[in-house]
Structures are given as C-alpha cells and as structure tokens.
Amino acid sequence: xxxxxxxxxxKEVLVTFQSCLNDQQEILMDPYIAGWKGLVRxxxxxxxxFSFVSKDAVAKIQIMENYRSGDQKAEYLTLHSMxxxxxxxxxxxxxxxxxxxxxxxxxxxxxxxxxRWLQLFLEGxxxxxxxxxxxxxxxxxxxxxxxxxxxxxIRKTSLLAFxxxxxxxxxxxxxxxxTPADAVAMLEEALPSIAKxxxxxxxxxAQHNLLDIP
Length: 214
Prior knowledge:
The protein contains 9 helices and no strands.
C-alpha cells in the first residue's frame, strides 16, 4: 500500500475537524474542506481500495472551493450560512438534480454521508479486538451508511475490494502515529470531533429537510 514517504498522519487530519466548529457551534467551511482534503490523502495512501470514495470526494471538494472563492464566498463561510443563503435563493433542487452546478447543500450532503462511513469504520477499528477482521469492520460500516445511497454495481465492487484490506494492526500502523495501541488512543481522542461535526450537520439538514436531496 504505502511506503514511508507517502504516509499521511491521520491524527493531523482528524485534529483539523476539531477546528470546524465556531463559538456558535456552526461548522466553518474552510476547516471542513481542509479536513476532507486530509482524509482523501489518507485514503489514497491505502491504494485503490477506497477510490470510489476518494475520487468523488475530490470532485466535491473542488466544487466547495469554487464556492468559497466565488462572488458569493461570504455566504459560504459556514455550513449554516450556506444553507440559509441557498434555500433563500432557490438554489437547491429538492426533487431532482438540475443542469446547473450542484448546490453547496447537495455537495456537502455527499461528503456528509461519506464522513459517516469513515466515522463508523474508524470507531469499529478503535473498539474491536486485535484479531478482528478489518474487512468485516469496513463492510459493516459501509452497509450502515454509504451502501444505502450507492447503486448495486458500486456496492458489489466496493464489498469485493474490502476483502483485500490488511489485518487490523497493520491497518492501524498505516495511520502513522506509532504502534497500534497509539493509533487506538489517537482515535479515542479525535473521533469525538468527527462525531460532533457529523451530528451538527445531520441536525441542520434534518431541520431544513435536506437529508434526501437527489
């Protein structure tokens, strides 16, 4: 999978998500995008196994960066300001995808769903025993999250790819924070921030009936 030079320290990536929330418990867009860029680097370190997530995430990140550098960039300072602006401006296609550039709300929703899968997978790695199957943990997390939104062919391909994942301790070492025990400790410290970002996003989207944007 990865050599020493290519490795990405997952702790640095997850810590980025700790800076996503401001004092009003709103999600800041720039740290959120930065966190996802780091997650993509980590997924790429693992090879092509997770390319079905990383390639899509790269496209979504680019869309959000364009919004953050565009004429209305101030409206995309936080996730909350984006939702308020796009709904008020009728920029969100609630029934079917339009021909125009995907809205920020739709784009973030796709990243939000993928974040749930990563959260569940990493939490499974943290709480599992040393002899647990990484493949089984990843499959369980996928079936509880992204699989609900993927067509059959992607589900089939993804589940087959998970079978080549390395053993749990080897996978933990790819996080580049030390021993497997060090990785578990890091996850215990960092995952609550991921969960907080996910939960705030989930509540905001539920409040505005945005969780099923096509």
